[in-house]
Amino acid sequence: MSLVTPSEIMQASGLSEKDFLLEIILLFQKKKISIGKASKLVGLPLEVSV
Asked: Which of 3, 29, 1, 11 has the alpha carbon at shortest distance from 38?
């Protein structure tokens, strides 16, 4: 089993870093992906305040 890192996903997309991030934002805004999935795709941990 292999682990795909966010940078590998971005590179495979063929998009620039800026365009990749914009695509993730659009997918989240359109409710196509969750905030958790979006944070994993961009490689940022999701912090929860309690």
From this structure: 29
